[in-house]
Design a protein that fits this description.
- The chain is an alpha/beta fold.
- The protein has a domain at 3-201: Rossmann fold.
- The chain has 16 helices and 14 strands.
- The chain has helices at residues 14-22, 41-47, 60-70, 105-117, 134-147, 169-175, 185-195, 208-239, 243-250, 283-294, 302-328, 356-366, 389-393, 406-409, 413-419, 434-439; strands at residues 3-8, 27-32, 73-76, 87-90, 123-126, 156-159, 178-182, 203-207, 337-341, 370-374, 385-386, 398-401, 424-427, 443-446.
- The strands form two sheets. Strands 3-2-1-4-5-6-7-8 form an eight-stranded mixed β-sheet, sandwiched between helices. Strands 11-10-9-12-13-14 form a six-stranded parallel β-sheet.
- Strand 9, helix 12 (356-366) and strand 10 form a beta-alpha-beta unit.
- Helix 1 crosses helix 3 (60-70), helix 4 (105-117) packs parallel to helix 5 (134-147) and helix 8 (208-239) packs parallel to helix 11 (302-328).
- The longest helix has 32 residues, at 208-239.
- It is globular.
């Protein structure tokens, strides 16, 4: 008997997980994608066996092509396909608004449509990241009302969050432990059985609320640690010390598995010109939203909020470095052409979600500069950008390395220098050696590196 799975949302999580299930014997997977102006093209693209995710994604293109050839993976726009599905996975985006509150329009709409279509006995899993309390207080009542069924008895529901990272989507889905949080024991059991087909790592059962908290805490933990590294980088710049050398020294503390209780190991992260992606910029606020709306008492999570503020301010600091370097070269920010190299938030990917390059673009415009965005991989973006490097750098008064794409790391600095009107290089990702850049004729500034001594 063929087991049908529906995956709603063909994005960075939905596509690889749908393809992985479709590669399992006995499964047929239908992806659902809204035919929107921004993403509707994926329907035809995926049905032709093509991978719409750009950049380096090991194994994904081959996997998609294989399951489409086998006839076990198709993509449609009609939610009615949920009617005879054994399991329905929700993988829609859950951004936040200007007030840091979750925007659940897609989640609510999809939940209502699933409820109207799904059969008795179906399992629904929410993989989208949500504020703690959302599965119980948002998804469950919508599904129950639209279906006329009772959650946990007539259908089953679990929060089973993803741990994907662009550049290793398949690897993470298959090899990282999967947290399974059902609304009751039977929901957890059914979700455990389902994910065991594609996850080689441990499946960890818990309840839905605990799983929701764990997901946003995972990403908030990383955001706080990045903020610490960024703050240290600013201190090092002020003192004239190389933050990357400091990081290496801090991280010399060894791991001692023989004595975990007094383990001295440190893992200081890299600083940089900003934090992007779908998760880190919003998940701390989702955690706070869950606390504010469903917690038994309120308090202000200061460390979490202050860390967000530090990370959000890094593009503005990059603009300060540009302005300082321009002044050193007798130039003003107003009217200066600034080439921003990198639109994607992560190297060797096409993922532009919450990219700090956009924040930098707007900050430079505000200060009177003429920023030009460039990326060798990105195909679509909300702001004007170019894939032609010369268009971005020729005649520029400054270059900002915002994304550590391998194409940028292979650049000949002397040839690049000759294309500029003013030889300024701002290194936001520690892609270049300061002495090498200076020798090539650049006025060099780097996050965490300070101003070179004359």
């Amino acid at each position: 008997m063929v087991r049908k799975i529906v995956v709603v949302g063909m994005g960075y999580t939905g596509i690889p997980i749908a393809a992985l299930f479709a590669d399992v014997a006995g499964f047929k997977v239908v992806g659902v994608q809204r035919r929107s102006e921004r993403s509707g093209w994926k329907i035809k693209y995926l049905n032709e066996g093509k991978n719409p995710i750009g950049g380096d994604e090991p194994g994904l293109s081959e996997l998609i092509a294989r399951v489409v050839r086998k006839g076990t993976f198709t993509v449609v726009e009609d939610m009615a396909t949920c009617k005879d599905a054994e399991a329905i996975l929700i993988d829609v985006q859950t951004p936040i608004d200007s007030e840091k509150a979750p925007m659940y329009e897609s989640l609510r709409e999809v939940s209502e449509k699933i409820g109207k279509c799904m059969s008795s006995g179906s399992l629904v899993t929410v993989e989208s990241t949500v504020a703690p309390g959302t599965t119980k207080n948002v998804v469950t009542p919508i599904l129950e009302k639209s279906s006329g069924m009772e959650a946990g008895r007539d259908f089953f529901l679990a929060f089973c969050y993803e741990r994907v990272m662009v550049g290793r989507l398949i690897k993470n889905i298959v090899n990282l432990p999967r947290i399974i949080g059902g609304i009751n024991d039977e929901s957890t059991r059914r979700a455990m059985e389902l994910y065991a087909h594609i996850t080689k790592a441990k499946l960890v059962p818990t309840d839905a609320l605990t799983a929701e908290v764990a997901k946003v805490v995972e990403n908030t933990y990383r955001d706080v640690n990045v903020a610490f590294s960024n703050e240290v980088a600013l201190i090092c710049e002020s003192l004239g010390v190389n933050a990357y050398a400091v990081r290496e020294l801090v991280n010399t503390l060894p791991n001692d598995p023989s004595n975990p209780s007094s383990n001295p190991v440190r893992n200081m992260l890299f600083p940089g010109s900003g934090v992007g992606g779908h998760c880190l910029p919003k998940d701390p606020w989702l955690l706070k939203y869950g606390l504010d709306n469903y917690g038994k008492f309120r308090f202000y999570p200061k460390i979490i909020a202050d860390s967000r503020a530090i990370n959000e301010a890094m593009p503005s600091h990059v603009a300060d470095l540009i302005e300082d370097a321009l002044t050193e070269n007798g130039k003003k920010m107003k009217g200066a052409k600034v080439a921003i190299l990198g639109v994607a938030f992560l190297e060797n990917s096409d993922d532009t979600r919450n990219t700090p390059s956009a924040t930098l673009f707007y900050e430079l415009k505000k200060r009177g500069a003429k920023p030009v965005l460039h990326d060798p991989i990105v195909r679509r973006f909300e702001l004007p950008f170019t894939n032609n490097l010369d268009e971005a750098v020729v005649g520029a008064d400054a270059i900002v390395l915002a994304t550590k794409h391998k194409e940028y790391q292979r650049l000949d600095l002397k040839m690049l220098r000759d294309k500029l009107a003013t030889p300024i290089l701002i290194d936001g990702r520690n892609a270049f050696d300061d002495k090498t850049a200076t020798k090539a004729g650049f006025t060099y500034r780097g996050i965490g590196k300070g101003k070179p001594e004359n």
